[in-house]
Design brief:
The structure holds two protein chains of two kinds. Chain A is about 35% helix and about 25% strand. Chain A is of the alpha/beta class. Chain A has one domain (about 5-250): TIM Barrel (Alpha-Beta Barrel). Chain A starts with 5 loop residues before the first strand and ends in a 7-residue tail after the last helix. By secondary structure, chain B is of the alpha/beta class. Chain B has one domain: Rossmann fold, CATH 3.40.50.880. Chain B has helices at about 15-25, 40-45, 55-65, 70-75, 85-90, 205-215, and strands at about 5-10, 30-35, 45-50, 80-85, 95, 100, 105-110, 130-135, 155-160, 165-170, 175-180, 185-190, 195. Classes of the chains: A alpha/beta, B alpha/beta. Chain B: Pathway: Amino-acid biosynthesis; L-histidine biosynthesis; L-histidine from 5-phospho-alpha-D-ribose 1-diphosphate: step 5/9. Chain B: Heterodimer of HisH and HisF.
């Protein structure tokens, strides 16, 4: 026996509440972040990811209070992302109790932030989030998008992943933008291509609709961890049910 | 001047909040202080020596704050818990930046060798070793069972994130191991000292149990 594959519930937070949308649109309220975090911890979640999708910078500080409160009650790793623009933002989140900080749009606009943050705080706490979409008009298969999937970058997602790891990213959160919220499963070929290209762990994200998708994410996509939101938020499945299911398929999980 | 029950040594390398929060959680009546002051370390009843990031930076920052002798003194004289780089720094030398450690224990710190990083199904294993792995206790349920493992199942999972591991020269100090894919030492103990590679403060119930054992531990 060895390292378990991780199940990571993701909480999209805006203005202090957890929400879930489809393709980053039509947000619905899913509850109080601290309560939800505690519930997932009780169910056996291996880690929690909070994405701050607050549009206005006025309310950005709310996430710090949420993280402080969760970190004093939940003793599993916490990753926080969204709105990270500079090294100082990384410091603030770590000081609030985040164990890892996820950097997305800023990594594209200013890759030096990834490099500086990894040098300062260690690669173990720097996650680069890559939002990718399948494209037809490029010499590669998957393109990196930013700004919640609205802006194309012209970057090859696989090459980009390699570059981010070379700058010090300790983990990659790979979200398939054309799958997110669709419930048709992860983009396993994308995840596999990135997983094969780099040495660091990959978290698969975007598109989970049932427990078989989690199994496929590991077996076909080579993911080290699987991230899901809506299947857990609305009580369709508990984390424990997800682990029981994955274990039936021979995947090592923490129970 | 209030007493310090537990000093968490802060040398400017990353986030110690989760360590102190977890200690406060298991010992709500104890005074837990995060400190970079050598006098506090000397005064404290118990000392926790965490660490993250790169070992060469950790050693440099430790020395920049004049903490080396206070750490070495505590490690030999009072209940002392090393975590992650706080374990690695106790050894002689690390492959990471070819840095010298504190040299309290003979042995070195090695990186997971790329050539070994394949599981039994031929799948690639990632570095850093990140996530929940099983921890096997050297003396589980035997006469030499260590007090810090009390109430923790043999093979319980703890949370890891690291690319380097310790190779003690003296096998007698080994108290626990994990497999990735080869067996490596994840816990050592000697007298008043216990040190682990995983993060008990992030390891849910198993980790809280270990911390709880530490705050009540009275080594002989």
């Amino acid at each position: 026996m060895g390292l378990a594959k991780r199940i990571i519930p993701c909480l999209d937070v805006t203005n202090g509440r957890v929400v879930k949308g489809v393709n980053f649109l039509e947000l619905r309220d899913a509850g109080d972040p601290v309560e939800i975090a505690k519930r997932y911890d009780d169910q056996g979640a291996d880690e929690l990811t909070f994405l701050d999708i607050t549009a206005s910078s006025d309310n950005r500080g709310l996430i710090l209070h949420i993280i402080e409160e969760v970190a004093s009650q939940v003793f599993i790793p916490l990753t926080v992302g969204g709105g990270v623009r500079e090294v100082e933002d990384v410091r603030r989140l770590l000081n609030a109790g985040a164990d890892k900080v996820s950097i997305n749009t800023t990594a594209v606009l200013n890759p030096k932030v990834v490099q500086d943050a990894a040098a300062k705080f260690g690669s173990q706490c720097i996650v680069v989030a890559i939002d990718a979409k399948k494209v037809e008009n490029q010499p590669f298969e998957w393109e990196v998008f930013t700004h919640g999937g609205r802006k194309a970058t012209g970057l090859d997602a696989v090459k980009w992943a390699e570059y981010m790891v070379s700058l010090g990213a300790g983990e990659l959160l790979v979200t398939s933008m054309d799958r997110d919220g669709t419930k048709i499963g992860f983009n396993n070929p994308l995840n596999k291509a990135i997983s094969n290209a780099v040495e660091v762990p990959i978290i698969a994200s975007g598109g989970v609709g049932n427990l078989q998708h989690l199994v496929d994410g590991v077996k076909e996509g080579g993911a080290d961890a699987v991230l899901a939101a809506s299947i857990f938020h609305y009580g369709e499945y508990t984390v424990k049910q997800a682990k029981d299911y994955m274990a039936q398929y021979g995947i090592e999980v923490r129970r | 001047m209030s007493t310090i029950d537990i000093a968490v040594i802060d040398y400017g390398m990353g986030n110690l909040r989760s360590v102190s929060k977890a200690l406060e959680h298991v010992a709500p009546t104890k005074n837990v202080v995060v400190t970079s002051n050598p006098d506090d370390v000397a005064k404290a009843s118990r000392v926790v020596f965490p660490g993250q990031g790169a070992m060469p930076d950790c050693i440099r920052e430790l020395d920049a704050r004049g903490l080396r002798s206070a750490v070495l003194d505590a490690a030999q004289n009072k209940p002392f818990l090393g975590i992650c780089i706080g374990l690695q720094m106790l050894f002689e030398r690390s492959e990471e930046g070819d840095a010298a450690g504190l040299g309290l224990f003979k042995g070195n710190v090695k990186r997971f060798a790329q050539a070994d990083m394949v599981d039994s199904q031929g799948e690639k294993l990632k570095v850093p070793h990140m996530g929940w792995n099983q921890v096997y206790q050297r003396h589980h349920a035997d006469a030499k069972a260590h007090a810090l493992w009390q109430g923790i199942e043999d093979g319980a999972r703890f949370y890891y994130v690291h690319s380097y591991y310790v190779q003690p020269a003296d096998d007698a100090i080994v108290e626990g191991y994990s497999d990735y894919p080869k067996r490596f030492t994840c816990a050592i103990a000697k007298d008043n000292l216990f040190a682990v590679q995983f993060h008990p403060e992030k390891s849910a119930n198993a980790g809280l149990q270990l911390l709880s054992n530490f705050v009540t531990w009275s080594p002989n």
